[in-house]
Amino acid sequence: MPAWPPLRAPGTTTGNQVSRPLGLRLQDLSPRQRKAVNALLDAGPGGFKGGMNTRKYENLTGAARATASRDLIELAALGLLTQVGAGRGTRYYLQIEGWAPA
Known about the structure:
Largest sheet: 2 strands, antiparallel
Oligomer: single chain
Strand order of the largest sheet: 1-2
Shape: globular
Radius of gyration: 13 Å
Helix content: 25-40%
């Protein structure tokens, strides 16, 4: 799979890149989703202790709990995040080798 440009708005920089599924464009994500993915990229492999969950997403983006859950599920369906666990223990990690817990 080819390496795609990072999921960032123009004019911002980061050293990390996430490979995107074929056909996914930055415009396909909501501003909330871009903000969350960028925050995960900025934090690095161990930056978000315990991974991203709906509560952290709510605090980061200001979204309601149901919206946070839907957004994270959609990011996982797009192949940007990996879902680990279920129910209240669900955590999400960037789909980058070595970033999810073993």
